[in-house]
Write a structure and sequence with these properties.
single chain; about 500 residues; mainly alpha; Na+/H+ antiporter like fold; 3 domains; 21 helices
Length: about 500
């Protein structure tokens, strides 16, 4: 068994690397490629006997993903739009879970109400990563981004609380009164426990000054918040959200300024690995659906998937355009129709949905079917909505045009050039010493270089990008040659190669 697990882990790692490489070369969302690679892995000899325990998915993947989302939430902006966020997160999440449960319960004979609700809870929460990355890139209103991020954070907690109730109902009979009492206990207890953990971590944080120790503490924090809460019968998700949100407000959490950049890189890599692995694991599970489903039942399976997708997408559009305006909530009335259309269309599902679906216990009847339906919702929203969101924003006039981006970049470049000229004048007149002038000159030149990279992207000819790559390659080759000849030390080689890597990364990301 140990050898099979090692082989499985190696195959997943290869899938992550291959998926990232292919995503850069093919016009296909990376998530789709990862699911396809997971499907191929499941066909390898011996792998079909290895399945990841749902408890591992729940306890290993969810805590850091939820904590990361809560940690980077903008507190002031979120508080200003708490009303719209709460309405969307609570009412729409509950409505989606219940309507999906009703539809699936009707479409799949013999499916228990608790299992149907588990699926509804899985597909109810949105994942803002794809939506907000597109919206930031095209210059959509910041308020829309904040509402979507805040809604996703809250609806994760709502959906996972409902999922917990569904799992309880799967194991024994639960009355409405029992469910209400359990809900109050789970929610209130999770929040209180999360506040206690946040207070304790906040006291420990100043005592840990070594960067490595700070990063380890940040990694341990979500698990300390999540796992004990679950063991106590409380909401581990709400506890983790409270801890992440509170520490995010208090000075960037447990990371001191000296280690903040390293910590951010660490968490970016960790979240990428967790989310990508979930897509691969999902692809490995899909094969079970077709193995368990008779051939004559497959058309009904596809029809059910299309029905669930339609419910999820159309219900959100209906909620933002019809139901919420009828509530006449004052703060929501300031959001115009165009922005509500975008909010409705930006309901992509992602890693949290996969984590919930994959954590459905193995003994639940029709588990492969539920996984397949959840996968279809994720794939359909990522392909259909994420790829069309940018054109929709521009069509509605909610995104910056290329001319606006260039105009702003030119204005920024002009102001920075004026500041650099003034620094040179003051240094020439001995009104500022050379050391101070150099510090400010480097600062403004760095900013100017970033702005110019945006202008270069606007005016760059196809051959220019190729030229830059060749120049970087020539510099790397020369450094390696100098090292082999003993002209430079390892430290010098690594330092200069690192600078070239940073430069290439900055160019690839648009200078930001």
């Amino acid at each position: 068994m140990g050898g099979e697990l090692f082989f499985l882990g190696l195959a997943v790692a290869v899938a992550l690397v291959v998926g990232r490489v292919l995503a850069r070369r093919l016009p296909v969302p990376e998530a789709i490629l990862l699911v396809a690679l997971g499907l191929l892995i499941s066909l390898l000899p011996g792998v079909e006997k290895v399945r990841v325990d749902p408890e591992i998915v729940l306890n290993l993947f969810l805590p850091p993903l939820v904590y990361h989302a809560a940690f980077f939430t903008a507190p002031r902006e979120t508080r200003a739009d708490a009303g719209p966020i709460a309405i969307m997160a609570f009412t729409l999440t509950c409505a989606t879970a219940l309507v999906v449960a009703l539809v699936v319960g009707w479409a799949v004979p013999g499916l228990s109400w608790a299992a149907a609700l588990a699926l509804g809870a899985a597909v109810a929460p949105t994942d803002p990563v794809a939506a907000t990355s597109v919206m930031k890139r095209v210059g959509a209103p910041r308020r829309l981004v904040t509402i979507l991020e805040g809604e996703s954070l809250v609806n994760d907690g709502v959906a996972l609380t409902m999922f917990g109730l569904a799992l309880t109902a799967l194991s024994h009979q639960v009355t409405a009164a029992d469910a209400a009492i359990e809900l109050v206990k789970v929610v209130a207890g999770g929040i209180v426990y999360g506040m206690a953990v946040a207070w304790i971590i906040g006291r420990i944080r100043p005592l840990v000054r070594e960067p490595g120790g700070q990063i380890v503490l940040s990694l341990v924090t979500p698990f300390v918040a999540y796992i004990p809460a679950v063991q106590l019968g409380l909401s581990g998700v709400l506890a983790t959200i409270v801890v992440g949100f509170w520490l995010g407000i208090k000075g960037q959490g447990v990371l001191q300024p000296a280690s903040r950049l390293t910590g951010q890189v660490f968490w970016e890599v960790l979240v990428f690995l967790l989310e990508s692995t979930l897509f691969v694991l999902l692809g490995m599970e899909i094969i079970d659906v077709f193995a368990a489903m008779p051939r004559h039942e497959r058309p009904r399976l596809v029809a059910t998937a299309l029905l669930v997708i339609a419910v999820v997408v159309l219900l959100r559009m209906l909620w933002t355009l019809v139901v919420v305006p009828l509530l006449r909530f004052r703060r929501f009335e300031t959001i115009d129709v165009r922005q509500r259309v975008v909010m409705g269309w930006a309901g992509m599902r992602g890693a949290i949905t996969l984590a919930i679906a994959l954590s459905i216990p193995l003994g639940v009847g029709n588990r492969p079917l539920l996984l397949f339906l959840a996968a279809c919702v994720v794939m359909a929203t990522l392909v259909g909505q994420a790829t069309t969101l940018a054109p929709l924003l521009r069509r509605l006039g909610l995104g910056e045009s290329d001319a606006q981006v260039k105009e702003e970049a030119e204005a920024r470049a002009a102001t920075l050039e004026a500041a650099l000229a003034r620094i040179d004048e003051m240094a020439a007149d001995d009104r500022v010493d050379d050391r101070t002038a150099d510090v400010y000159r480097q600062l403004f030149e760095l900013r100017l270089d970033k702005v110019r990279s945006v202008l270069d992207e606007e005016d760059e000819q196809p051959h220019t990008g190729k030229l830059r790559k060749e120049l970087v390659k020539a510099q790397r080759d020369k450094l390696n040659q100098l090292y082999r000849k003993g002209r430079i030390s390892t430290d010098t080689q690594r330092k200069l190669l690192h600078e070239l890597d940073l430069e290439e990364r900055r160019r690839a990301s648009g200078g930001h």
